[in-house]
Each structure stands twice: as C-alpha cells, then as structure tokens.
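Table 4 source record.
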Amino acid sequence: MSTIAATNSLFEIDVELDSLLDEIEEQTAQGGEPAGELVARFQGFCSAHDEKVDRIGRFLRRMEAREQFCRGEAARLVTGPAPPPAKWSEPETWSSTT
C-alpha cells in the first residue's frame, strides 16, 4: 500500500484531490501548463484513492460472504438437527446349498 493510502483516510484523499484539481485548473486557466510536481502529486493521490476504494470493495465482498454463511447457519440451526444417518449393516450374503 502506498504511503498516501496508508496515512490518509478516503475522505482526506478526496479533499486533497479536490484541492489539487483546483490548483491545476487555476494554472491552466492562465494559459500555462500545470507544474510537473503538482501533476505528479495529483496522480499519486489518484492512485491512493483507487487503492482505498479497492480495499473497501474487497472488505464489502468479504462481509457479504460472511453474511451469507451466517444466514445459512442460522437457517440450518432453526430447522433443527439433521436426522441421524442410517445405520450400516452387513450386506446379506447368498449362500447356496448343494
């Protein structure tokens, strides 16, 4: 995980992206090019934003799987114990008497 993603919350990253985008727009509105370090910082925060969103998505998928498992277990427990398995017995043998 990048340092930016590790040290900032998703909301802090979002605020910083808004701020950086405003700065880039100001620089380009004056007819110039945005500073290289400003663009690099913006790209770094975009990458950190993507990392955070991906991690949140993985967490949500994990929680959904856990929810399905818990619902299945609850349904299983509500229906009561399963009937005992049939007892195994020796197969009948055919004997021929001659």
